[in-house]
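Project standup — Tuesday

K.O.: blocked on the structure for the chain from last sprint. Re-posting the sequence here as requested.
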Amino acid sequence: MTAMISDIRLREHIRLALDEDLGSGDITTSAILTGTETGVAHAISKGDIIVAGMSVFREVFHTIDPSLAFEAYSYDGERAVKGNLLASVSGSMKSILLAERVALNFFQRMCGIATVTHRYVEEVKDTGVRILDTRKTTPNLRNLEKYAVKTGGGCNHRFGLYDGVMIKDNHITAAGSIASAVRKVTGNVPPTVKIEVEVKNLQEVEEALASGADIIMLDNMGIGDMKKAVSLINGRALVEASGNVSLSNVREIAETGVDFISIGSLTHSAPAADISLVFKNQE
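H.V.: unblocked you, prediction finished:
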């Protein structure tokens, strides 16, 4: 878990999610069960997925009840197909039911992101292009979602405003020009920090190059202009494509010669993986 988020922060996220769901208690489960009943529940994939977040899935159950036994049959980064048994949890049926929804919410979300990311990575394989995520993440879940992107084979862009320079259109407007924005950044950040500039057209590509940008992001450009931009840059800066990227056009974008393709939908629009948790005698 520490690779994606500290144990302390993860437990805090889980506690908040459980508090949101449970409130003063599960009135349905409390009315049906005495708390002495035990059973085994199986997590089953209902589709073809890339597994991500198994340790988070387990931690939710153990937060509710440390005595629950948890066994994983698939691990992060592995493929699972429809019908695969992913994990089992056994012990108090009441505890399992209290944790079920929150555990699945985390797990399905992370598996969904990893699965979508993997599809994009597969589309551009052998091109040398790397698929990047963005900051378009669920508030307070960025570390988990970016971990899921990496699990699916993608790469992480900056984690926040604090760990990378990205001069966007509003920065350029505020500074007066691309040259002015780059000059001000260069004078105020360590020389080891790369400077990335977002551009919308070929004229801005030339301005960014002349200003000494390390990375140039081609924002919402057509394929023709992307090819011209890559030719114009000619290796003098790294090139990132962004905007209006889909599974149907990502290969064509990759073949323009860009180095990176950043895709907000990896995190902001990935559908949750279809995973069920069922007690053994209900399968």
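K.O.: great, moving the ticket to review. The chain has eleven helices and twelve strands. The chain has two domains: 7-115+271-282, 122-268.
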